[in-house]
Amino acid sequence: MAQIELIHVSKTYGPTKHGRNAEPAVCDLSYVIEDGHFVSLLGPSGCGKSTTLNMIAGLEDISSGTILIDSHRVDDLDPDKRDLAFVFQDYALYPHMSVYENIAFGLRMRKVPKSEIETRVTDAARRLEIEQTLQSKPKKLSGGQRQRVALARAIARRPSVFLFDEPLSNLDALLRDQTRSELKLLHRELGATSVYVTHDQEEAMTLSDRIAVMSRGRLEQFGTPYEVYHEPATEFVASFVGKPRMNLFTVTKAEIGRYGLPGTTFTIDIGDIGMDQVRVGLRPEECDLHPADDGAPGHGVVKAVEPLGNVSDVLVTVGDQIFMSRVPGFGNYTVGDHVNINVTRARIHCFDQKSGTRVDH
Amino acid sequence: MGEAQSPVSAVSARSEPGREAPGTQRKHREISSGISRNAKRRLVAWVCGVLVVLLMVFFLAPFIWMIAYSLYPSAALQGSTLDMGFANITFDSYSRLLSDSSFLVPMANSAIVGLSTTIICMTIGAASAYAIARFKFRGRQPLLLSMMTVQAIPVIVLAVPLFILLRSVGLYDQLFGLIITYTAFILPLVIWMLVGFFEDIPPSLERAARIDGCNRLQIMYKIAFPLAAPGMAATAILAFITSWSDFFLAKVLTISTATTLPVRTAAFQGLFAMDYTSAATAGVITAVPVLILTLIAQKWIISGLTEGAVKG
Fold first, then answer.
1. Which of B45, B63, B81 is the last residue of a domain?
2. Domain that holds residue B123
3. Cross-chain residue pair B211–A139, CB shorter than 8 Å
4. Which residue of B has its CA nearest to A141?
């Protein structure tokens, strides 16, 4: 079991071909991954999440800062000395070895006794239900089975830290959901500290104790799934986490405590925050729609209705903004309807226009 | 090619006039233009087959003729009528050559030179190619390009300087002289080929091996080399064949002690007469290892070992 601590960790690659200094891939990361926690690094492609994972693993050097595992500095140790296992996105199974040899390889390299290797491989294979495939070569296996072998290889090592680099992204949707649930059970069973890289917010939300949301190499927020969803620290987190995407727009002070969307009749009550303009975020599922009174223009006009079965997403044009509301069932709206938006039950998230940071109100 | 009857003709035979199924008109058009699509495909396949056979005959005829010469007495082939009955086949020339020390020594020389060159090229080449494929360092691309430039220089240009060089260091007519010369010529090609094979190995496998506790050297011989084995085998065979069957450099750089098989074979052509049977027999003996190795290499190249390594 292990606690991982990142202290001002940065990574900069060498100068570009044109001699200019490259942008840092990862910039000043500092957070603590508690012992036994499952932490997801969430962010879009190129945000530095895989680089961070590789730095924890020791597959990439850090440019500055410190990484501690159980209070021991590890950033100058080789990957195999850090007592961790890595599950790769493309599985990275050795094609010239059987499944058994693949799982046993890491143990052999660590000079684990033969009888112990056999016990551990059999145990890992049993847990992941791949006993039948132990003598096969990886190319004979399906994608799902290969992923299980990759997991078994990690489990058999019995490390104190598991690192996952988008391990489910190559599986089809159904298998992905199934493996995700199994992964959660597995983590509960093993209780080892796990760091999980993903760009899929659903994976991050369902699996994690904590989520580290990253953008452009920087940490945007480190918090529980609840905090990340309901109290986004920055506008980026607000826009990245949540499906459908949060409605984000700029409102201007209309009267004390009330702000309005310029050019429309839509106003919201934020309270006195001492700012003339502010970015506001509203989750679509917390906003209700009501048909406007006969002849009245309402806040906006329905532009499209996207039924999903149990709910429908209704797109409303409000001024020059597109506003989305998620309504129950198939909804009673058709394109062209004039509607009012009711935000009384919505949490209103405010962000500073320039810095994008959360403004409490 | 054993294909079933064309569905086009089957459909058109069943259709009644005036009640044509959709698409039948198009099929009619195909038939009225004289040839259906399936028939056209069959014709193309047939023509290709004939061309392949002709090409094979073109390439194999000299070889078959050489085998014939090695198996039949000259008189049977040089008369006005060819007498190629099974009864005339004789292995005399083979037994004669394989018991003749003036032939066996060059044969051993060729084997020593070929094997040594291959071993040296593969040892240095594999390590260099792995480094070029996996480490990004300044001058990597120019290095690879310069290797290919060496290949572009005609051997004949270098023959005389090499002759002078080897003679001055006492390696003229020495096996070692031939070995280092061949190594210099073949090594760049070996590196060039192996770089491609190593680059094809997914880097994540090597990263997995690092996590599993391998150092660089262990990654090389436990992961990279086994995975590149088919490519390495094919490259080794190419290196062997090149040095085994080279005539020109061996002719220039040796005179008697270090003579190799191709040079000895050519020596059957005298100033005034030509011993066709011996020359053909020597040719077959020279070609057989090359032939066998090529067949093996072909099999290894085709079997893609990395299949299944990563997603797919």
1. B63
2. 96-311
3. no
4. B308
Shortest distance between the Cα of A104 and any Cα of chain B, in A, equals 10
Into how many domains does chain B fold?
2
CB pairs under 8 A between A and B: 79
* Tens-place pLDDT, residues A200-233: 999 999 999 999 999 999 999 999 999 999 999 9
Q: Are B208 and A90 in contact (CB under 8 A)?
A: no
Scan residues 121-180 of A and list those with Cβ closer than 8 Å to B.
137-141, 143, 146, 170
- Do A274 and A350 form a contact (C-beta atoms < 8 A)? no
Instruction: Report how far residue A260's alpha carbon sits from residue A79's, in angstroms, rounded to the nearest whole number.
Output: 55
Asked whether residue B76 is domain-assigned, the answer is no
- Measure CB to CB from residue B202 to each of A86, A90, A139 and give the nearest one: A90
ipTM of the complex: 0.84
State whether B147 and B105 are in the same domain: yes
Are the CB atoms for A62 and A9 separated by under 8 Å?
Answer: yes
pLDDT digit string, tens, across residues B62-106? 998 899 888 888 777 776 777 777 777 888 889 988 998 889 999
CA distance B148 to B142: 10
Residue B156 and residue B295 in one domain: yes
B91 domain residue, yes or no? no
